[in-house]
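Our preliminary data section would be incomplete without showing what the modeling component actually yields. Below, a chain of 180 amino acids is followed by its predicted structure, encoded as tokens that our downstream tools consume directly.
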Amino acid sequence: MSSEQIIIDQIKQGNRAAMKTLYTQYSGYATATCMRYVTENEAVKDILQDSFVKILTSIDRFEYRGEGSLKAWIRTLVANLALDYLRKNNRLCFTDDIPQEMEDEPPSMDEIPTEELLKMIGMLPIGYRTVLNLYVFEDKSHKEIAQILGIKENSSASQYARAKKMLNKMMQNYMKGMAR
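Predicted structure:
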């Protein structure tokens, strides 16, 4: 039996130590997921707390599908709560215009530390950042993103194209700064 399955079974039996273990093992991952969408520290803390309350109260409905399924479920739950926060606070704005020209190829992601890349993503406008996260990290199609966010499919594609363009520029500037 996997460690995820053991934790889930123990939580379902009301084991508080297992609940703490779940939090200890997954809170960093959940925080990183949330911070891809929301940049304000207090909001991230609130979303994280709400996420773990929801995780613990709905664990009975979770269906274990093998190693990694708990982590994926947590990621989805946190992302959905972060999106709810953005919707409730009217933070999402979108455009349908797709940029005509793209910049040069971005530098290799391997050349930029993960922490720096996450900072760059955090600097993107909220609409761009949200679509980029859903498309890249949650593996959603533009059609799915449009349904999730209540926007047109071409709005999703536009936000993604603009996010890529802006992120590409930030990555190029970072690499120029490193070359000095």
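The two ends are 52 Å apart (CA to CA). Helices lie at 3-12, 16-35, 41-58, 69-88, 114-123, 126-137, 142-149, 153-179. Preliminary results of this kind motivate Aim 1 of the renewal.
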